[in-house]
């Protein structure tokens, strides 16, 4: 008995057959490696902030971010090549994370988009040097009060907010988990992991700081509000099913599991709980994708946030949130299809029309793009509603196409500048095509892709989701979609007309000459847009292969 | 051996590419490159011809599959060639006459700065025309069809600094569009009917489809043929196309391209055989055009336009023969070939005359030229004898056969067609004799040179072009008729040989008919009156035509300014009012249509569109106010949205 004299927690746990015996969770590190790499890099990034001298931080952080995201992408490709997207798709980490085709495809998309976004984050040549120091889009010291002495001192000292890189990596990590989450708690944790850094990132614009901070606060308040709904919905669904696991909930919904947990005897099997809870969870996701009527944060936040952050957010958040929504609707709630489909129909319609209609009267390019992103959320919802495999693959393809167009478009916005920073008012863009034909032409390509003109990725994506929706019996939705596309085309083309057929103004903005970083981001955007538009078949096939969820 | 077919097309295509992309540095040798490649194509054609003669009669068709352009299940767009006896005939005609005309152009275009480009276009034409006749499916044929249209457009408008040439090019292009639409619709109909457009399967299965469909396809093909071959009602462009350089008129607008319609109908014989109504339409078009062209040819004072009317008329003969079915196909092609010789010769002769006459085209200002241009006179005269069907010469054999076949088509139709073709032969003799007398006989009417009334004459005044004989143009004392250089006379002599002997050669032992029979089938015509009687009648009608022309023009002086003439003459001078008709019916009608469409567009469509836009804009403005910037109202919106979401979900379950 001498051994038991040194009684401790460890011995209790280790004791075989003891009361409450504990087996270590089985974690498939290899399958989770993309997320783990990014999380690890984010933690290292925090350490870099603490220990690396100020001058070297920018380069260290940039290097770390690029390497981490590239490595994570390589891991995703390796997993996909290893068959984890198709034949070897599985549920990993004790049921918390799914490793399957959609998850890998979306993770790959998020990582590529993030890589391009890192380039725009790191751009330091757009503004003239302040006190001999290169400046980027972020505040010198985010904590200093705008306009205060401490802010001036920070600018003078040449501080930069290199924390944006680890913040972004944390957000990316959350986004990687979000579409792969296979239980509701993981879903919620992932949501918070990527939302909180985004709130912060929105607040750190170098110019128009008050607007930036206002945007961040709004985003935070409304985000917290929607998170509460989501969490409450999770509680209700748990009450209904007695589990937070997707697979378990699904089997309770379709009636294959009838076992009732005695502790939840009063609530289990109560459909009202399921319906209300499901609707609330959906609402949380619809908030993230910016669907009407949960979209109102979008224009304010897109406008206020630093433009590189807006581009990153608009692209990657949408990919992650739609991924989670697809999994929720296709894996957890397929049994409720007849309940959620009509509601989603309505939301898709108001989202498409609302985004397109309100965009018409916008005068700020960033707000315009925000409403455009709302309309696009509606188009993607049309593909989500298809409830068939083509729906999944079409949405995957659309997200891939859309994210590159978005980042590219916002990157172009950062280039057009006047004395006050970015010249985002549309009137300033008049005649841009005369002065900077290349930049205007590139932006025109992105706008045409947004509008869904053939030979751009926008057309291929829109065609895919509308086709899937039509085959899924949502013909009316497609009609509305095409009408909204026509309305939306109006304001995209209007910008092109403005750029190419209006006389330039005397005091118009100048187009900054970017470093290779932004050039690369825009170049990749144009290349992907054109390749996906001219030869979409390979990627459609890829998305088609990836379009099966594991259960 | 089959692999040479692609080279046949590739040689002139290479020439076109080199000459058009080569730039100025090829200016000095460009014409020789073009001529050499045309000749190379001709030699290849001869080699293939020799090989074909070596094969069994039944196994003479050569095929070459190059690649599949559109490899889709159910839609195979093949780039593949088929060279049978019919195609072979065309290949030899196109490359043979084509090479001669290349040679002729070296002299004719000597002083033109853009001669290299001219030869590039000519080579482009050869390539497209060869593609047209060796294609093994209608789609590829269509490609060649459009290619010759392009080349024709470029060459008619070659002297684009002349507004009349530019207009004529556009006119030819637009009128041809109408016909080309017919061809494309025909191809689409074939595809929906047979699931393919390759010659083999389509023509093989032509009898299996319903007669209605065959008639539709046949009529569309006829429309195409009308456009390309200048048949009524799409004939109006050919006269104006004479604005192009004369070698172009000879090659494209007399010998080869304009006969593509005859090729199309003959090639599609199986379709027409299965659609008697379409065949009747073909015959009617041919008969009407042969008279139409002949009448126009009688009234023109412009030598090239008179010949253009004649071309129209002669192609009318061919179309008519092709419409008669198996008794006529072989004769249509035979007349096509002999016509290719003598009409090309006549045009080259006309070009030679113009070359020596400061580009004067008004025959009333010629006269007595036989003394100054003996070679031109003799070759032109042989071509003249051939085209009027003087016994023993080419035209006699080929036209006589068509007249026999027309009589043999049976019943009332046979009598009508026979009479029309006979009448046509008479008018041909009349207008060609007129051309001959006005140009080469009588007194010279070309001095003194400047004619103050020139602008008032019926024909539009022809400006002096910088092309030919610009060295003479500076000469104010008037034209000095002279014989043309060797490079021009040699092709004329060669063509004259063809004009004289080709018909007889083809007819001995029914050589030509036997040669083509495996492709076109052949039935011996059995006219209701015996063949010698028909031949006799033809000769009588011919002599009558010559005699009338002689009485009218040969006995007294010819006025330099055309007299007012009868109503018919005046109408014929205006191409039987074709342009007036087109203008009133099509142009005015089209203008009215577009005007009313524009009216509807402005009032109705724009009203709806602008109204919608305005209301969307207004809605946008109002919805925008919801975005007031307060986080609390945003939260209310979210809360309300969620409430509705939940309520709707529950409601869906309740329903």
TrEMBL record, chain A:
Is Zinc among the key words of this record? Answer: no
Give the bilayer topology. Multi-pass membrane protein
What residue stretches are annotated with the NADH:quinone oxidoreductase/Mrp antiporter transmembrane domain? 181-487
Q: Which reaction does it catalyse?
A: a quinone + NADH + 5 H(+)(in) = a quinol + NAD(+) + 4 H(+)(out)
**What compartments host this protein?**
Cell membrane; Endomembrane system; Membrane
Query: Does Transmembrane helix show up as a keyword for this record?
Result: yes
- Record keywords: Cell membrane, Membrane, NAD, Quinone, Translocase, Transmembrane, Transmembrane helix, Transport
Which superkingdom does the taxonomy of this entry point to? Bacteria
According to the record, the segments passing through the membrane are 30-50, 62-84, 104-122, 157-178, 184-205, 217-241, 272-297, 309-330, 342-361, 368-389, 395-416, 437-456, 476-501, 513-535
EC numbers for this chain: 7.1.1.-
InterPro entries recorded for this chain? NADH-Q_OxRdtase_suN/2 (IPR010096), ND/Mrp_TM (IPR001750)
UniProt similarity note: Belongs to the complex I subunit 2 family.
Per the entry, what this protein does is: NDH-1 shuttles electrons from NADH, via FMN and iron-sulfur (Fe-S) centers, to quinones in the respiratory chain. The immediate electron acceptor for the enzyme in this species is believed to be a menaquinone. Couples the redox reaction to proton translocation (for every two electrons transferred, four hydrogen ions are translocated across the cytoplasmic membrane), and thus conserves the redox energy in a proton gradient.
Assembly, in brief, is:
NDH-1 is composed of 14 different subunits. Subunits NuoA, H, J, K, L, M, N constitute the membrane sector of the complex.
Name of the protein described by the UniProt record = NADH-quinone oxidoreductase subunit N
Q: What is the lineage of its organism?
A: Bacteria, Bacillati, Actinomycetota, Actinomycetes, Kitasatosporales
Name of the gene encoding the protein in the UniProt record? nuoN
From TrEMBL, chain B:
Q: Which residues cross the membrane?
A: 31-54, 89-106, 118-135, 181-203, 215-234, 246-266, 278-299, 372-393, 413-432, 490-509, 529-551, 634-652
Q: How does it sit in the membrane?
A: Multi-pass membrane protein
Pfam families given in the database record? Proton_antipo_M, Proton_antipo_N
Question: Which positions fall inside the NADH:quinone oxidoreductase/Mrp antiporter transmembrane domain?
Answer: 135-421
Does the keyword RNA-binding belong to this entry?
no
The alphabetized UniProt keywords are: Membrane, Transmembrane, Transmembrane helix
Localisation:
Endomembrane system; Membrane
- Give residue ranges for domain NADH-Ubiquinone oxidoreductase (complex I) chain 5 N-terminal: 69-119
Q: What is this protein called?
A: NADH-quinone oxidoreductase subunit L
Q: What is the lineage of its organism?
A: Bacteria, Bacillati, Actinomycetota, Actinomycetes, Kitasatosporales
């Amino acid at each position: 008995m001498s051994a038991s004299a040194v009684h401790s927690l460890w011995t209790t746990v280790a004791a075989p057959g003891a009361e409450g015996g504990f087996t270590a969770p089985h974690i498939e590190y290899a399958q989770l490696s993309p997320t783990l790499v990014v999380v690890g890099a984010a933690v290292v990034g925090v350490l870099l902030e603490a220990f690396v001298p100020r001058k070297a931080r920018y380069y260290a952080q940039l290097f770390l971010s690029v390497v981490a995201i590239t490595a994570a992408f390589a891991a995703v490709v390796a997993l996909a090549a290893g068959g984890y997207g198709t034949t070897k798709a599985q549920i990993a980490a004790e049921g918390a994370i799914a490793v399957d085709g959609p998850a890998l495809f979306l993770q790959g998309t998020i990582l590529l988009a993030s890589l391009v976004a890192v380039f725009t984050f790191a751009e330091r040549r757009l503004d003239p040097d302040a006190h001999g120091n290169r400046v980027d889009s972020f505040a010198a010291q985010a904590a200093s009060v705008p306009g205060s002495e401490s802010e001036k001192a920070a600018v003078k000292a040449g501080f930069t907010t290199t924390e944006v890189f680890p913040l972004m990596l944390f957000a990316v990590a959350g986004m990687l988990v979000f579409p792969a989450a296979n239980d509701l708690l993981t879903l919620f944790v992932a949501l918070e992991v990527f939302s909180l850094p985004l709130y912060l990132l929105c607040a750190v614009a170098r110019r128009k700081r008050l607007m930036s901070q206002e945007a961040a606060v709004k985003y935070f308040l409304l985000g917290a509000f929607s998170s509460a709904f989501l969490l409450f919905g999770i509680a209700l669904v748990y009450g209904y099913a007695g589990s937070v696991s997707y697979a378990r909930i699904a089997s309770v919904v379709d009636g294959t599991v009838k076992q009732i947990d005695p502790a939840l005897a009063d609530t289990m099997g109560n459909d009202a709980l399921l319906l209300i809870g499901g609707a609330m969870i959906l609402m949380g996701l619809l908030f993230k994708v910016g669907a009407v009527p949960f979209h109102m944060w979008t224009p304010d936040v897109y406008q206020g946030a630093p433009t590189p952050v807006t581009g990153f957010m608009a692209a990657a958040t949408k990919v992650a949130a739609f991924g989670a929504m697809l999994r929720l609707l296709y894996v957890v709630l397929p049994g409720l299809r007849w309940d959620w489909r009509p509601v989603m129909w309505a939301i898709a319609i108001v989202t498409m029309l609302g985004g397109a209609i309100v965009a018409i009267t916008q005068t700020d390019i960033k707000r315009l793009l925000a409403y455009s992103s709302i309309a696009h959320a509606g188009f993607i919802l049309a593909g989500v509603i298809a409830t068939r495999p083509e729906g999944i693959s079409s949405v995957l393809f659309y997200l891939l196409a859309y994210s590159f167009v978005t980042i590219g478009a916002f990157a172009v916005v950062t280039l057009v500048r006047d004395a006050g920073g970015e010249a985002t008012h549309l009137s300033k863009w008049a005649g841009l095509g005369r002065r900077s034909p290349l930049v205007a032409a590139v932006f025109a390509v992105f706008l045409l892709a947004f509008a869904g003109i053939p030979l751009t990725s926008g057309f291929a994506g829109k065609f895919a989701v509308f086709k899937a929706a039509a085959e899924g019996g949502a013909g009316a939705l497609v009609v509305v979609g095409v009408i909204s596309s026509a309305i939306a085309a109006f304001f995209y083309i209007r910008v092109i007309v403005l750029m190419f057929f209006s006389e330039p103004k005397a005091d118009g903005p100048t187009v900054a000459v970017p470093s290779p970083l932004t050039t690369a981001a825009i170049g990749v955007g144009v290349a992907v847009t054109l390749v996906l538009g001219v030869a979409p078949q390979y990627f459609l096939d890829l998305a088609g292969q990836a379009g099966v969820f594991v259960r | 051996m089959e692999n040479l077919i692609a080279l046949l097309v590739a040689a002139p295509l290479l020439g076109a590419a080199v000459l058009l992309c080569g730039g100025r540095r090829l200016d000095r040798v460009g014409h020789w490159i073009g001529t050499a490649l045309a000749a190379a194509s001709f030699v290849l054609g001869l080699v293939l011809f020799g090989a074909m003669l070596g094969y069994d009669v039944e196994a003479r068709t050569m095929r070459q599959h190059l690649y599949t352009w559109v490899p889709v299940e159910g839609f195979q767009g093949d780039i593949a060639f088929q060279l049978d006896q019919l195609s072979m005939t065309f290949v030899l005609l196109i490359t043979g006459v084509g090479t001669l005309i290349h040679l002729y152009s070296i002299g004719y275009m000597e002083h033109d700065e853009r001669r290299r480009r001219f030869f590039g276009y000519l080579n482009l034409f050869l390539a497209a025309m060869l593609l047209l006749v060796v294609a093994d499916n209608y789609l590829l044929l269509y490609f060649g069809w459009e290619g010759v249209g392009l080349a024709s457009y470029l060459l008619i408008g070659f002297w684009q600094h002349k507004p009349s040439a530019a207009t004529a090019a556009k006119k030819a292009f637009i009128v041809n569009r109408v016909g080309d639409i017919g061809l494309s619709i025909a191809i689409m109909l074939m595809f929906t009917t047979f699931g393919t457009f390759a010659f083999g399967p389509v023509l093989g299965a032509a009898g299996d489809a319903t007669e209605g469909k065959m008639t539709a396809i046949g009529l569309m093909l006829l429309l195409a043929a009308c456009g390309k071959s200048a048949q009524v009602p799409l004939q109006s462009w050919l006269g104006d196309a004479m604005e192009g350089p004369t070698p172009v008129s000879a090659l494209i607008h007399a010998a080869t391209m304009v006969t593509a319609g005859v090729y199309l109908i003959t090639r599609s014989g199986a379709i027409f055989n299965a659609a008697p109504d379409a065949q009747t339409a073909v015959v009617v078009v041919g008969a009407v055009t042969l008279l139409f062209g002949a009448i126009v040819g009688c009234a023109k004072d412009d030598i090239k336009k008179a010949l253009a009317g004649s071309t129209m008329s002669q192609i009318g003969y061919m179309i008519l023969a092709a419409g008669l079915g198996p008794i006529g196909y072989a004769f249509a092609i035979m007349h096509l070939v002999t016509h290719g010789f003598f009409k090309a010769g006549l045009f080259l002769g006309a070009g030679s005359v113009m070359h020596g006459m400061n580009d004067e085209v008004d025959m009333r200002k010629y006269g007595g030229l036989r003394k100054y241009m003996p070679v031109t006179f003799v070759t032109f005269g042989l071509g003249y004898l051939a085209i009027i069907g003087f016994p023993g010469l080419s035209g006699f054999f080929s036209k006589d056969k068509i007249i026999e076949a027309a009589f043999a088509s049976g019943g009332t139709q046979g009598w009508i067609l026979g009479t029309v073709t006979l009448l046509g032969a008479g008018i041909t003799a009349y207008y060609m004799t007129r051309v001959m007398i006005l140009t080469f006989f009588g007194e010279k009417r070309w001095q003194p040179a400047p004619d103050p009334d020139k602008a008032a004459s019926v024909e539009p005044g022809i400006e002096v072009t910088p092309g030919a004989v610009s060295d003479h143009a500076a000469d104010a004392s008037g034209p000095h008729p002279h014989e043309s250089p060797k490079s021009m006379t040699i092709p004329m002599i060669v063509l004259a040989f063809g004009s004289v002997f080709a018909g007889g050669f083809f007819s001995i032992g029914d050589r030509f008919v036997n040669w083509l029979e495996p492709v076109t089938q052949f039935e011996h015509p059995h006219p209701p009156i015996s063949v010698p009687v028909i031949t006799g009648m033809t000769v009588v009608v011919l002599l009558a035509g010559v005699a009338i022309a002689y009485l009218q023009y040969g006995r007294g002086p010819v006025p330099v300014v055309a007299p007012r003439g009868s109503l018919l003459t005046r109408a014929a001078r205006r191409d039987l009012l074709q342009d007036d008709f087109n203008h009133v019916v099509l142009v005015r009608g089209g203008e009215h249509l577009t005007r009313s469409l524009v009216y509807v567009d402005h009032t109705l469509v724009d009203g709806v569109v602008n109204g919608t836009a305005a209301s969307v804009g207004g809605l946008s403005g109002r919805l925008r106010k919801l975005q007031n910037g307060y986080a609390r109202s945003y939260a209310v919106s979210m809360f309300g949205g969620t409430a509705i979401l939940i309520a709707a979900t529950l409601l869906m379950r309740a329903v």
